[in-house]
Amino acid sequence: MSIDLRVAHTDELERFARLREQGYAIPVNQRSGWIERVSTTGRTERLVGAFDGDRLVGMLNVLAFEQWFGGRAVPMGGVASVVVAPEERGRGIAPRMLAFALTLMAERGEVVSTLGPATTWAYRKCGWELAGHYGVVSVRTADLVGLAEGSTRERRATTADRDGMIAAYDRAAPSHPGFLARPTWLWDERLEDAPNRFTYVVERDARIEGYVTYNESAVPRGINVWVDDLVGTDADAQRTLWRHLGAHLAQAEHVTVAGVPLDALEHLLPEQRIKPLGQQVWMTRILDVVGAIAARGFAPAARADVSFRLRDPFAPGNEGSWRLIVEDGRGRIEPAATEPDAVLTVNGLGALYTGWSSSAVLLDSGMAQGLSAAEAITLDAVFSGRRPVMSDDF
Q1: Which terminus has fewer CB within 10 Å in the chain: N or C?
Q2: How many CA atoms lie within 13 A of 84 on its CB side?
Q3: Bridge partner residues of 210 (DSSP)
Q4: CA–CA distance from 297 to each of 163, 368, 390 (Å)?
Q5: Residue 259 in 3-state DSSP?
Q6: What is the reported pLDDT for 1?
Q7: What angle in degrees, to the nearest 10, is found between the helix axes of 31-40 and 13-24?
Q8: What is the dihedral angle through the alpha carbons of 112, 118, 124, 130, rounded to the nearest 10 degrees?
Q9: CB 217, CB 196: distance < 8 Å
């Protein structure tokens, strides 16, 4: 029997929830909460189901996001909850759902797509490529409490601090390639009051300059501190927040930090003692090459004029010979006047676009061919920057 793809109906959410639970080993007691959250926050608009007759055999969801690259928020479709029933795997259902998702994202004007893969090869085959970091690490509390004191002490957050925390995040996010421009529903979940969950803020001159959120749980002979969000608009605020976590020294030898960028902390700690516990490299796909380059920001002094042929068998609108022009902090793509020697796959362009990979890596991996030395240097100069990190896991 053939597979049909369509967006879910509201009365089908129970079936989707059951398939999601099977695919991700989610407890059944979370079902009603998930159904309520997705149905009341617009997250069923592009909840896609694959049906074999009346039977739901696959699903995915496309979430409407923006993601920061080059100091500008780029329209991004976040692919989440990708599940194929175990007995139906191997029938090509996942690639068909992803192709369907490409159409939905194009209709919404999203120019890139990002996802956190449970497996890499299936998404790579459809044009997504490794593009940024989500890591889980252990940091010694003794190292954190030894940092220089900030000028302002932290305090426990209240519900009245919500807007100030969001404003602090919005000021910091443009300097972090890969960060989401978080929608309201995501902030609601981030700041939801829950047992053993704590939020502290740093306030200076009546303005919140940073915050940290974490969970505590009991372990033998102490507690586990799980940090899932820490933002400071400057070094002073960041040191105060890290020192606050270090103050758990009496009950926790380490704190576990998930998704938070650590590039600044690495330079503040006295020794190289951040211990990796796990990581997921998220993947990005260029949906609309013209729109993606126009939406992204570039350094004001960056200059480029490079032509290349782009290979993208899944998105015919991307396929072709293009000329990339970057100047005055903006980029644009136009058809190349002549056939170029350089060739990029859409996977390679995605990895370059976020700043995750260099031209040399693309050439070594076969995602680029024929780039001259001057072209490689130019592409690296305009796309490279701070390590791309995403602190949200959707």
Answers
A1: N
A2: 18
A3: 202, 232
A4: 26, 23, 18
A5: coil
A6: 57
A7: 120
A8: 60
A9: yes
- For the chain, the residue count is 394
DSSP string spanning 299-313? Answer: -TT--EEEEEEEE-T
Q: In whole angstroms, what is the distance from residue 232 CA to residue 136 CA?
A: 19
Residue 329 DSSP SS3: coil
Give me the half-sphere count of Cα atoms (radius 13 Å) on the Cβ side of residue 317: 12
Token match 């007759």: residue? 53
CA 185/CA 228 separation, integer angstroms: 17
User: C-alpha angle with apex 161: 155 to 166, nearest 5 degrees?
Assistant: 115
Phi, psi (5° rounding) for residue 96?
A: -65, -40
Instruction: Report how far apart, in Å, the C-alpha atoms of 281 and of each of 16, 23, 257, 316, 372 are.
Output: 27, 20, 16, 27, 29
Tell me what pLDDT residue 95 has: 95
What's the start-to-end Cα distance of the chain, in Å?
32
In this structure, what DSSP letter does residue 119 have? Answer: S
pLDDT of residue 130: 98
CA distance 294 to 99: 23
pLDDT tens per residue across span 146-176: 999 989 999 999 999 999 999 999 999 999 9
The pair of structure tokens assigned to 358 is: 């260099």
CA distance 234 to 265: 12
**Residues with Cβ < 8 Å from 382, sequence gap 6 or more?**
298, 299, 302, 303, 304, 326, 331
Tell me whether strands 222-232 and 254-258 are parallel, antiparallel or unpaired. Answer: parallel
Contacts for 328 with CB less than 8 Å, ≥ 6 apart: 300
Tell me how far apart the alpha carbons of residues 257 and 54 are, in angstroms, rounded to a whole number: 43
**Is 131 within 8 Å of 356 (Cβ atoms)?**
yes
Asked if 7 contacts 45 with a C-beta cutoff of 8 angstroms, the reply is yes
Token duo for residue 86: 């175990």
pLDDT, tens digit, 9 for 90 and up, residues 194-226: 999 999 999 999 999 999 999 999 998 899 999
**Where do the H-state alpha helices sit in the chain?**
13-24, 31-40, 93-108, 121-125, 141-145, 162-172, 184-190, 235-246, 263-268, 289-295, 346-353, 359-365, 373-383
What's the pLDDT at 232?
A: 97
Give the pLDDT of residue 163: 98
Low-confidence residues in the chain, pLDDT < 50: none
- Is 33:27 a contact under the CB 8 Å cutoff? no
